[in-house]
Amino acid sequence: MDNKQYKDLVHVTTPKSPLLKDCIKAFIFGGGICCFGEILKTLYSMTSLNEDEVKLAVSSTLIVITAILTGAGVFDKIAKHAGAGTAVPITGFANSVVSPAVEFSLEGKILGTGAKMFNLAGPVIVYGCSAASLYGLIYWITTL
User: Fold this and answer.
1) Whole-number Å distance between alpha carbons of 11 and 61
2) pTM (two decimals)
């Protein structure tokens, strides 16, 4: 089978994705997560926390809720319907750390959970920190 025949076979057998429906679902679920974050922000603002502490509390709450839902197997079911809507940075990142940790936990704490936990999230951390450092350096140089 040559490349053209293979491409034709893939084109025929691959199910068509309902693009508009998927976009609407991602918008609704992603927007829902963001709205929930805003509700948390409003609730935390009513306490004695200052603005920076409110931001930390909202982020931490979203991470903990995502980690619990991922560990319980609920987040994957939500993501199956929400698609890219669950990739809102903080929830998507929390899921990408917890999922491998749960999946490989049977292999032990060190070689399973510890070694596999950052398979997906590790590059995000490395390149995110690298980009932030580069941006900081450029900002520092241009403000001298």
Assistant:
1) 43
2) 0.70
